[in-house]
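FORM 7B: Structural annotation worksheet

SECTION A. Query
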Amino acid sequence: MDIDLRMSQADAARTSYQVDALNKELSGGKAFKTELDKDDFLKILITQLQHQDPTNPMQDKEFIAQMAQFSSLEQMTNMATSFGKLSTVLNSSEAQSLLGRTVEVLDGDKAIYGKVSQVVRGEFPLVMVNGSFYDLDQVSKVEE
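SECTION B. Predicted structure
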């Protein structure tokens, strides 16, 4: 019994249509991304499973390896997000600890001395010295 492994013209057209649709979806009408994210990885894996050769299915080892890669990618993404949040909290906490203290702020070529009278929390905390707001990164010295 011979099995014909060639795609019919209808199957080839349907596959071509699905590939074009996926490419359009991935590009979102914009320039192509240069890096794949976890959603792209999952789409590729699902497409691979849907279109595998039934006479030679994907081996369990390959599938498990790809799922492990997907899981690792997901965990790295979650860790990066968590580290970003932690960084924001630490920066805000550091800015709040400066409230009422005398600081030196470097603004271009000049150094400004004064007490921190106000703090604005957020991803990029600001400190008010002598009536002007400065980025926390501009604070170079802190005094009692």
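SECTION C. Observations
The mean pLDDT is 81. Strands lie at 102-107, 110-120, 126-129, 132-135, 139-143.

SECTION D. Sign-off
Analyst initials: ____
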